Structures are given as structure tokens and as C-alpha cells.
């Protein structure tokens, strides 16, 4: 039995020695892999940091350009809306004139008076035409007073012509 135990102990010693050697080799390989990974991480960090900075700069520029484009588009839309409002004023003026022609002076005067504030605001919006547009207030007041008193003989042609002239000039400026 002694011999068998001696053989088993010898085999166990050889096996333990073999496992220790394998462990050392694996440890060396793991250290090499770990070192390589650290180098790769450093290289990636060195490469990606400038790229991230450039991407942030590009993002900032495109955001700014996009905002400027949106602002310009919104401004154009607002200007077009104001022009459309002027066209609507011509329509309202025509309605007032129709009521005047039908002998409905009070209703016509009320409709005509409703155009004063939008015409004044259009003068504020289109500064080059401010004097023309805001200069219509006296004419509108006179027409409204006459129509209310029953004198519906005067048509708002001067007001309509002024609005149409301003619209024509605005359309020419747009081209």
C-alpha cells in the first residue's frame, strides 16, 4: 500500500506542478490582453475625443443655421399673412360698399369702421407704406360719418385704390 500511495502522491505532485505552470501561463496571457485592451482604450479615447468635439461643433452650427432658416421662414410667413390681411381688408371694404349701395348706411359704416384698426396696423407692419395707409383714417372717418347720417352717395373708391396700390407695390417688392 505504501507503493500505491507513493505513486499516487507522485502523480498528484506532477499534476499540481502542471496546473501551477498552466496558471502562470494563463496569468501572463491575461496580463498581455489587459495591457492591449488599455492601449486600445487609450487610442480610442485619443481618436474619439477630437471627433466628438468636431461633431459638437457641427451640431452647434447646424442648429444655428436651422434656427436662422426657421426664423427667416417664419418672418416670410408673417409678412405673407399681413399681405393676405390687406387683401381681406379690400374684401371687407367691398362688402361695406355693397351695403352702402343697398342703402344700409349704418351697417356699411360699421363695416367700414371695422377696417380702421387693421389698416393702421398694416401701416406699422409695412413702414414704407405707413403714411399712405395711416393717412386713410381721416377718409374712413368722413365716409363712416356720412354713411351713418344717411348720405350714402360717396363710395370708398379712394380707400380701395390706395389699398390696391400698396398691395401692388408690395407684390413688386417681393419679386
Automatic annotation (TrEMBL):
It comes from the Bacteria. This is Uncharacterized protein. The lineage of its organism: Bacteria, Pseudomonadati, Pseudomonadota, Gammaproteobacteria, Thiotrichales.
Amino acid at each position: 500500500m505504501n507503493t500505491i500511495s507513493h505513486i499516487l502522491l507522485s502523480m498528484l505532485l506532477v499534476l499540481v506542478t502542471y496546473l501551477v505552470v498552466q496558471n502562470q501561463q494563463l496569468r501572463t496571457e491575461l496580463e498581455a490582453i489587459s495591457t492591449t485592451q488599455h492601449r486600445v482604450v487609450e487610442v480610442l479615447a485619443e481618436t474619439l475625443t477630437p471627433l466628438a468635439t468636431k461633431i459638437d461643433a457641427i451640431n452647434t452650427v447646424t442648429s444655428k443655421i436651422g434656427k436662422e432658416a426657421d426664423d427667416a421662414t417664419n418672418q416670410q410667413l408673417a409678412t405673407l399673412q399681413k399681405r393676405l390681411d390687406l387683401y381681406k381688408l379690400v374684401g371687407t371694404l367691398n362688402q361695406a360698399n355693397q351695403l352702402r349701395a343697398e342703402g344700409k348706411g349704418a351697417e356699411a359704416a360699421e363695416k367700414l369702421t371695422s377696417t380702421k384698426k387693421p389698416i393702421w396696423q398694416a401701416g406699422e407692419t409695412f413702414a414704407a407704406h405707413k403714411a399712405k395707409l395711416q393717412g386713410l383714417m381721416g377718409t374712413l372717418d368722413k365716409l363712416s360719418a356720412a354713411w351713418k347720417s344717411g348720405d350714402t352717395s360717396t363710395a370708398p373708391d379712394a380707400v380701395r385704390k390706395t389699398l390696391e396700390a400698396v398691395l401692388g407695390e408690395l407684390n413688386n417688392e417681393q419679386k
